[in-house]
Amino acid sequence: MARIVIIGAGMSGLAAASRLGTLGHRVTVCEASPTYGGMVGRYERDGFAFDTGPGLLALPAVYRDLALKTGREPLEELVELAPVDPESRHLFPDGTALLLPNASRGGVGQALDAAFGTGSGERWGEVVNRGRAVWEATRRPLLEEPRPERRPDDPYPVPPRRGLGRWLPRGRYTLADVARHELGGHPGLTALLTEYALRHGLGSDSPASATVLPYMEQTFGVWYVRGGMRALADAVFRRCEQRRVEFRFDTPAEPLVEDGVLTGVRTADGSRIPADIVLSSVPSGSRALGRFTVLLALRGARPGGTVHRTVVHAADPEQEFDRLFQHEDLPEHPTVQLLRPDDPALVPDADHESATLTVTVPNGGVLDGIGPDHDAYAAHLLDHLAKAGVDLRDRVLWHETRVTAQVPEPSLAGAPLAADNRTGVPGLYRIGGTAHPGGGLPRVGMSASITAGLIGPA
């Protein structure tokens, strides 16, 4: 039995603690804040409740595996999962509306043909099929196994070039190239592709392997946890308690390495906790993007037929990427995601609605602090939604705003990989969004699984 200390009680820390406790280790978790869950937070006021981090779950298989490996019971016995169907509604600047079904590649193709014209679904399907080839080539080395020693080449199967283009030197093939050459530069299809990238903190210059993101979502589906995503954190925390994991909240800590040897952790008050193994989920490295969130308490019942997730696409996608990645400035009319869950647990009664809108912004600077700039930008975003046909302004009872660090980008073939779970110090490991295999709920769960596998049973 090893003495293990985990720094951070976010989802990666909880997942690692439950796995290592099940393997027979003695586990202590030190968390700087008063509670667990990290970015999977919850805000409550006047009978309303909101997820303050991710609101939807992709690849639930990661947490199904966690539930089975740590308790031999299905995830569905711990939380209530509901598929989000339709998966999303997309509103484009030219007035086009697109309704996408959940986990139905054929249904997506039909919806694209209806919205953009015959052949659009086939063109999109060919790109997503190439995303499938990326998934099959990278699933194990980039998601399920320890970080490879070198960055793998992008396995995206680039189609043969035609005409004079075949004589030009071939360089790095990017999402922008996919949009230009394979989607024909179609504005709607391009906006759909780049929205997946933007949501994961990626730019249009990302490697073409990023097409794995729409493949995963449209193949495996998107899910909602009843009661809000915080219910998932609650379930994993309970599993930790069942495995006798000790939690120390309000306890910032850092690894303690003396003469190159890991001896435990040192807490903010100067005390020491001896440990044979330490896992740190403290973020490392810089983050280029942030997330601006507006929590909306709405008067009036949620209208029948309301879609759970609506995306209002940017008026000028190129300008949006340019402002975000080149000038670190706020896009004037950005891509906005609006979540409107049909969940009685989130509202005081049936005559009210809880909604959350999010937009990707530069990380820091333009919206630092709390003040009138937040409220002004929130009002601007509501006006932006209203012009797209989703007018919530007269229904707002109150709103709350916040700026958080963007979930770090996932590890992609052809791009720099997240930091290795192993460090140069024996017994010291990295987990979480800035460690292999990257950010997002599924990947931080995989980070915990990979690291628990490296440590092994007691």
TrEMBL record:
Organism: Kitasatospora terrestris
Upper classification of the organism: Bacteria, Bacillati, Actinomycetota, Actinomycetes, Kitasatosporales
Domain of life assignment: Bacteria
Entry-linked PANTHER family: PHYTOENE DESATURASE
Pfam families assigned to the protein according to its UniProt record, in alphabetical order: Amino_oxidase
Record domain Amine oxidase: where: 11-444
Name of the protein in its database record: NAD(P)/FAD-dependent oxidoreductase
